[in-house]
Amino acid sequence: MRSIMSGSAGSYRFTLLAGAAAFAMGAHGAANAQDVPDSDDADELILEDDVPSAPESNNQIIVTASKREQTLQEVPISVSVTSGETLEAAQIRDVLDLQTVTPSLRVSQLQTSSASTFIIRGFGNGDNNFGVEPSVGVFIDGVFRSRSASALNDLANVQRIEVLNGPQSTLFGKNASAGVISVVTREPQFDFGGNIEAVYGNFNQVFLRGDITGPITDSIAFSLDGSYQQRDGFGEIVNLNEEINDRNRYSLRGQLLIEPTTDLKIRLIADYANIDEVCCQTGNLEIGPTTRDAITAVGGQFGTDFFADENFLNVVPRNRNENYGFSGQIDWDLGNISVTSITAYRELRNSFAQDVDFTSADLTTESRDQSVDTFTQEFRITSNFDGPLNFLLGGYYFDEQIEQDSSLSIGEDFRDFAAFSAVSGGFYNSPDPTSPQSRLNSGALVPGLTPAQQIGAGEALLAQVDQQLGLPVGSVLGGDFLSRERFTLDNRSWSVFGTVDFEPVDGLVFTAGFNYTDDRKDFAIQTTPGDPLSTFNVIDQFITQATALNPGLPTITSREQFQALPAAVQQQLQAAALDPLQNPLLPLADLQFQTGFLDVPNPVEPGRTRDDDFTYILRAAYQVTPELNVYASYATGFKASSVNLSRDSRPPAILFEPGVGPRPAPDGSNNFRGSTFLAPDSPIIDAGIATPNLSNGTRVADPEEATVYEIGMKGQWDGFGFNLAVFDQTIENFQAFIFTGLGFTLLNAGEQSVRGFEFDATANPTDGLVLTFAVTHLDPLFDSFPNPVLGDLTGQRPGGIPAWAIATSATYTHEFDSGSRIITRVDYNHESNTNVNNGLPTFNFARGETEIFRREVNTVNASTTLALNNGLEIGAFVRNLFDDRWILTVADGVAQSGTVFGYPSPPRTYGGVVRFRF
C-alpha cells in the first residue's frame, strides 16, 4: 500500500495486522537478554548471549543506562533495550532498521548515505549540516559519535543497544537534550570462539560478517571482527543506465582486553569503516511549470511516478565516507570505589557530489568535502557502599575540529535554462507581481513561442546583461560555479556531572544529579560567488544607471551617496527602481540563484559562541514489591549553540536589515535580494561591510534547554513483564534546520513540547513462545514558533511525528530432542498517518494553501532459522513483506517553482542466511 496525501491509506492493513498480532514485539522487552551471571565477571554475561534461544520473559536484562550495571527493572529510566540476539533474529544489520523494534526511536536517511537523523520522542536534528550537533547523543562503547555520519557502521558484534528516552545530561557529557543511543559491543573473551555469517538476498545483496576471540595470555584476550555489505541499488538512473541506492561498505575492528589483576581491566579498541555508495533515491510528487517546461526545453528529463524508483540525473551521486579511530577504557575496582577512564580519538572523512536539481539536464552539482577530528576524555568515580548513600562523579572533555569545502557548479544547460525562465517573466508576467500564481508561472512556456524561440529570446536578454556589465557574451550564468565556500569550526567543551543516591529505607531511593557544561565554538565562513550576475543588486544597479544618464544628478555608486540626495529625489529613484515598467532589471533577481554573502569573522561578527549551563535531575524510586518498581522524576537537559555551516548562513536581523527588494521574501517581508542603497542603519551598514544582495537570516541557533516530567512503573513476574512511562517533555529553542529550495535556514523554535506515554510488555504463555508488544503515543505541539520561513507555527502540531508508533513480535522456538532448534519470528511495525512536515516554503507559499503530504507506515518482517546443535545455522528472512512504500520526507524542487520532490522508503528485501558458531 502506498500513502502520499491526506487520507486513510494503509489503515485497513494496520487493522488486520494489529488483530493478528495483538500482543507482540516491543523495544524494552525486545531485548532477548541475558541471565544475570552468578559472578561479577561480565564475560559470562556475554557468552550466554552468543547462543540463540527462545527468550524467556522472566530473564533479567542487564543495562548500563545509569552508568552502573543494573537490571532493566531496577533502572528508573525509560530505556529501550535490544539485544544482539534480537538484532540477529530480526535480520537488522543497519541502524536505519533499528526503529522497527524501538517505537520511540526514528531514524531517517535522506540526501546522502551519511545524512541521517536520530529522533527520540519527536526530537532530533543535525542530519545535513556538520555545524548542527545532534540532539540525540550516540555513544558506541562509551565514546560519543559527534555526527551521525560517524555512527553508521554495520551493527557487528553487538551485545545490546540501549535507547534512553528524554534528556540525559547528568550522565552523559555531551548533547543529550533529547535522549541517548548507547551501543554496547562484546568484549574479548578468554575462551576461544567466534562465528561467521553469510547472507545472500534480492538485489544481489551479499553480507559477510565474522568475529573471532580468544586468549593471548592468561591476562590478555583479543577479538577481531569485520563485516562487508554489497547490494545493487533499489532504483535506476534511467538516462545513465546506472543504479542508485546501493550498498557498498565494510568495517574492521580489533580489541584487546587486558586484566593484569582481578581489580584492573583495560579495554583497547581500534576500528575502521568505509562507505562508497551511490545515494540517494528521489522521486517527484508534484511537477511545476519550471520543471515541465524549462527542463524539457533544454533537453532534460525527470521522473513523474514517485514510487517507480526511476531517476533522471546527469551526474552519478557518489557518497564516500571513512570513519576510524581508537579508544582506551580503564576500569579500576578499589573495593567500595571504582574508577573509569575512557579516552578516544576519531577521524571522519566524508565527501559527496550530487546532482541537486534531480533532472537529466546539466544544471548544477553540489559537492562537499568534510573532515571531523575529535578527541574525548571521560573520567568517572563510582561508589558501591553498603550504607544508604552512593554517588557517581564524572568529568568530560571534548575537542573537535571541522573543515568543509563545498561548491555549486554551473552546468552546460544552466544558461539556457535561465534564459528560458527569464522570458517567462518570472514574478513580472502578472499584473500583480506579488500574486502566488505569478510565482508559480516562473519558468513556464510563453504562449505563441516555441521552446527554442523562448531560449533564443532569453539568450538575447542575457547578452544585453553581459554587455551592460562589460563582460563577454556568455559570461552571466555561463561560468564554472555558482558559489564556493570554506567552513571551519573548532569546538571545545568540558563538563562535570554526577548523581547521589540516598536510600533511607530498603527499596526507597532518592536521586539528585547535576551537570555543568561549558561549551566554546569558533567558526569561520568564507564564500566566493562565481557568477557576475550575483555581484550587483537590480535596484541599486538601476539607480546607478539612472543617475549616470541624468545630467542633473551625480552618479550614485554607494549608499552614502544615495543617502546624501534630497529626500524627494530618493523617493523618486526608489519608486522608479521598484516599477517593472521602468526597471527592466527586476526579473533578473529570479536568476540570481546564489548571491554574495558576508564572510565571518568580520568587524561586526566575531564568529564564536560561548555557552554554559547547569542541568539537574530529581528522582524518587520505590520497590513496591520484589516484582514491581515505580519512579517519578524531573530532569533538565542542555545542548549548546549550533552554527549554520552552509552557503545560506546570514547575519541576524539585529545586525543587518536590508532595504526593499524586487519581490517579497518567503516570510512576506519586502527584502528579497534587498537593496543596500535603501537599507536603514545597522551595525553592518555602519561598518561599511555589506555585500550586494545581502539579506538577514541566521548564523547561529541558540542553545536547546529541555525539561521533562516523568512517572514510570516496571514489573516482572514469571512469564510476564511490562514497562510504562508517562511523560511531559519540553525543549525551548529547539534547533530547526529547514530547506528553502535554494538553501538551508537554521533557526530556533521558541518552545516545542510533547506529552505521551511508552508501554511495552513481554509474555511467555507457553514454552518456546514469546509475545511482545510496545507502543509509544506522542502528542507534540509548537508552543511558540514564529517561523520566518513557513509562517507562524505557534499552536500547530509538528510534522513528521506520528501520534502512535507500535512494534510487535511473536517468536517461537521448537527444540528437538537432539538439541537442535527452529526459531521463527514475525514482527510488525506501525506509524499512524501523519503530516510529513509543516509545509514547504515555496510550494505552499505559491499555492496560497496548506496542502501537506502525509505518510503511514505498516511493515511486516519475518524470519526462520534452523540452529543445529553443531553450531551451524541456516535461515531465511524477509523485510517489508507486503512491499509497503511511504514518503520519508519532501522538499521544494531546487530552482523549480511548483515542483516537490521527496525520498521514498525502501522496497521489500529478502534472502537466506548461513551462520556457523564455534
TrEMBL record:
It is found in: Cell outer membrane. Keywords: Cell outer membrane, Ion transport, Iron, Iron transport, Membrane, Receptor, Signal, TonB box, Transmembrane, Transmembrane beta strand, Transport. The keyword Oxidoreductase does not apply. It comes from the Bacteria. GO terms for cellular component: cell outer membrane. Residues 298-881 form the TonB-dependent receptor-like beta-barrel domain. InterPro entries: Beta-barrel_TonB, Beta-barrel_TonB_sf, Plug_dom, TonB-dep_rcpt-like. Belongs to the TonB-dependent receptor family. This is TonB-dependent receptor. It comes from Erythrobacter litoralis.
